[in-house]
Amino acid sequence: MALDVVKKESSFQAWVEHPASHIVHHDARCCEEARMWFLGYARSMQISALSRYELRAPTWLSQLFTWGPSAWPIAWCELVKMKTLDCGVFAALAREAFTAQGFEAHPAQALLSFNPTCTTHWKGLWKKPPKNPLPEPLKDQKKEKTHATFPWIGNEVVYHELCVLEMEGNQAKFYDSTWGNWFTPDQETGFGALLALRTECPRLLHWGDKIFSYGEWIDL
Amino acid sequence: MKKKIYITGMHSGQNPSSGLGIARCLRRAFPDVTLVGVDHTHGSSGLHDSIINEELLLPQWSQIQDDEHAAFIRARLEEGHLWIAALDMEVYWLSKHFGTHPHLLAPNKEALEFTAKPAVKILENWPVSSSAAGEFAEFQVPDYISANLPDAEIHSFLRTHCWQCWLKSPYHDALRISSWSVFERARAYLKSNWKTSNLFLQRNVIGNEETISFAAHQGQLLGAVHLEKLQLTPEGKTWAGRVKPLDESMSQNLGQMVQQLGWTGGGELEFVRDPDGRKWIIECNPRFPAWIYGSALMGANLPGKLISHLWKLPLLEAIKPSATFTRVVYEIPTKDAVGLPRPKDPSTFTWATDGKHGKGGPSFSALLPNLEEQSTSEVVPLLPLPPANLAAEISSIALFFSEETPSRISLPLWTQQIFETLHQKVQTYCATGKPRIQIGYSVKTSPTDHHLQAAKNCGFYAECITQKEVQRALNFGFAPHQIILNGPGKFWPLTDNPITGVQLLFCDSLEEFSRVLKAKEQPKTLGLRIQLPQIHSRFGNTLSNYQDFEGLLSALQDLKRIKRQPGLAFHFHMPSWSIGLKRWIEALESFLYWCKGLEQLCDLPVHTIDLGGGYFPEDLEKLNLAALGERVHSQLPQVKTLYLEPGRSLTQESEILFTRILDIRKNKNTKANSSEARAESDTEVIKEIVVDACIAELPLAQAFPHRIFFQEAGRVPSEVARVPLGVAHVPQRKTFALAQPGKARILGRICMEDDILGQNISIPPDVQIGDLVIFGDAGGYERSMSYGFGRG
Ligand SMILES: [Zn+2]
User: What ipTM was estimated for this complex?
Assistant: First the structure.
């Protein structure tokens, strides 16, 4: 990766090697019920008076859950009872919602630029114990899980998970599932600017003048 | 003599005009030109900016002498100065009172006609693009209708577009319309504020706002930019945005448009890009936008290009591929030569800020030119006649009406026809359609004998919401297996032995569900009313969080465990007339998705679906039963019966309210020298009448438009024999008339400010005290929700 600022970060290697997050399904009634509820809820939240649009981004996710630390791995039957979820879960849920609408949605990962003052706050936020309620059967696993938090926050760069849609003509659309907005290929600098992107789409994707192949980090 | 550039529209507030932005562009391009800021309001803030060399404050537009002002502008232009018009209304005024001039930088009359709202006709000439999705116009116009159409048509348009529309004047202002009462207020406000009747309603489009701004001279496109609005003020004005060069094909199309129109000056195409990428035109403005300096920052100085072209001045530009800008607010010293308006004396104000608003003093519209309309716009279409049978029945009753008023009279023939029509429609569907459709008549809407009888005759079931209604239905002859029990109060009044052994019972909460499971008698089918996430309702079982969903699943497990297990049903009810038919269909799809999921998770087949009522009469007629049945069947093939529970749609039109006129009030034209008075000096027009009914008899008078009829009283010729009720007969007399649109209103008899029974109608000039005024559409909730008031 050509960007010096990224390479200076101690977690650099961990970020670029980290696979996108996926939700665990216990293959049992617990997760079936939870997933059905989520999909039913997603379907209802798409109700719109102006019904002619095909694509309806799940911006309501941020009303349903708060962004913050959540332990990995996480299963369907656990996450539906959580108040706080991290960007990996947001991205996985957004993929479910887009897929249910009939779109090809794939995981995407990003490295974003922020200033050290911001990242210090986030590090503090991630050190606090999660606010999520832990149901009885899960309590034993708690210790193991909190240790599993991924070091996503660097000094001036953070790792973030997104959702990429494969549109007509292999055009990509990058959706920030945590904050409910779309990235544009216009070059951005400054607070929250995109430094690099990676997708897990099995086909080539075009975005502005960039081309993405499966798993490859692209500098922006 | 040094040539000057006059720029109008200098106010820079939270809803800024473009003048200051244009001036800043020109100052950036040409440090030495003389800029003259022009405005008609003392308080126009941009005049104080130091980049303005001279300030010219003129009287308010309402005090402007058209010829005098035109001559003044012409004299400046003849001297070689330029005039840039930065206000829409001023551009229209110029086209009407001034015409064109080589030094006037504003589009001509024809260009204005072809770009007028809402159709923006010139865009039809843009080439059609094609893609995999088919051919589509570059810009589409969101559906719109004139606000002069009969109220019933407007109500229908608003229902169709789910009460998400804009009411717009042809020049300025757009108000959000979310209900009928909001519409009526907005229409009255815009009509009086803009002195126009050319208002129109347009459906709202969701998406991102973008605009294209351009500069042209005599049909030659000099430059254009594309703006994506990134931040908006609460009024919808640009606060921050990204400016880009216009793409090539768009640029070519724009070039052709400008050429066809011979455009001169600035211009702006405002549109919304919807989530599917389609572009919906909002309007075409005949001037530069107020954010135009934002594009100069990027290097595309459109006003600069215009002046550079005209005066052959060199213009240096370094264009960036894309740049963002934002607005800020900061303070500048005022100029003594301009000063500030003195605030009004506050002693009679309601709020201390009343006199100190940016646009304080005269109303906003007084600060803009008044464009008197052509008479063609005043033509108001006649109301469509009500169905012949309905009109005939009303008139035959009205002709011989002699009872006390107010009096609600039923229309037996029309009632029968409405019930029969639905019955036939269901029968036709059931011959082939799956699942079966069963109508449950909503008893609460109108529990009269004749309505219950009509329902019974058609084989409809009785949908009840209390134990009292169940008793009423049973006493009337409905069998228990013809009763549906619904709502949160179905066990009122409380007894030890409530009736539960009905055909269909829907629980409003899980608590109620578990009580019903323990009741002695089980309904044949037991169900839960579902409250969909996002559709706000106080009824039913919520699914908005996972714990509620788990509770629902466990209740269904309880159902599986009881001995004589009733069939499983789900109920969804949202009045389509208040959320709009399109949204209703979407909500239905979501409801069926939940039902399907619950069916799979619990391994319990859903036998019955109930879709409730709340259809507007016209919408029920339009409802396609076959499509509805197919929708349900495809998702839930095990559903045997689909229930619909109409009430309003069957009864609203089936009764009328007779009232008599108590007072007639006419316009006295006391302001003898006003132009309006001159026009109407020879005829006194009735502005309002008082009738002996009130909102106690018509509680929904302001919720939807009613058909209103007039009938002379006590002037029935003796030779006309009494026509028996029900014989279709329209008397060929002028004395029976349907009220047409107009400016008058009908006031109720009680001393309450909101007792207004009819608005925007015209009243026949020869009505007299004691004549009958008949309100149609007075059945249904107008009956069941009426109350006694002011009767001594
Ligand atoms: Zn599970």
Answer: 0.91
Judged by CB atoms closer than 8 Å, whether chains meet at A36 and B544 is answered as no
The answer to whether A47 contacts chain B (CB < 8 Å) is: yes
B597/A51 Cβ within 8 A: no
Contacts of B274 in chain A (CB under 8 A): 52-53
Domain with CATH 3.20.20.10 in chain B: 447-646
The string of pLDDT tens digits covering residues B697-741 is 999 999 999 999 999 876 544 444 444 444 444 444 457 888 888
Could you tell me which CATH number the domain at B4-136+207-326 has? 3.30.470.20
DSSP β-ladder status, B686-691 and B708-711? unpaired
In the predicted model, what is the mean pLDDT of residues B681-692?
Answer: 83
For the domain bounded by B447-646, which CATH number is listed?
A: 3.20.20.10
Locate CATH 3.30.470.20 in chain B: 4-136+207-326
Cβ-in-10-Å burial (0-12, 13-18, 19+) of B622 comes to exposed
**How is domain B388-407+654-784 classified at the CATH fold level?**
Lyase, Ornithine Decarboxylase; Chain A, domain 1 (2.40.37)
Task: Collect all residues of chain A within an 8 Å Cβ-Cβ radius of residue B579.
Answer: 49
CATH 2.40.37 intervals, chain B: 388-407+654-784
pLDDT digits (tens, 9 = 90+) for B164-210: 999 998 887 889 999 999 999 999 888 888 777 789 999 999 889 99
Q: Is the pLDDT of residue B37 over 80?
A: yes
Return the CATH number at A87: 3.10.620
State how far the Cα of A18 lies from the Cα of B328, in Å rounded to an integer. 42
Q: How many CB atoms lie within 10 A of CB A30?
A: 16
Considering only CB atoms, B546 lies closest to which of A34, A44, A53, namely A34
Q: Tell me the CB-side half-sphere exposure of residue B676, using CA atoms within 13 A.
A: 9
With 0.95 as the threshold, say if the pTM is over it. Answer: no
What is the rounded distance in angstroms from the CA atom of residue B498 to the CA atom of residue B511? 16
Contact B152, B616 (CB under 8 A): no
Q: Answer for the pair B707, B395: CB distance below 8 angstroms, yes or no.
A: no
* Banded pLDDT at B150 (limits 50, 70, 90): confident
Is the Cβ of A34 closer than 8 Å to some Cβ of chain B?
Answer: yes
Distance between CA atoms of residues B41 and B545, nearest Å: 56
pLDDT band at B268 (very low <50, low <70, confident <90, very high): very high
Q: Nearest CA to CA, how far is B78 from chain A (Å)?
A: 47
Number of domains present in the structure of chain A: 1
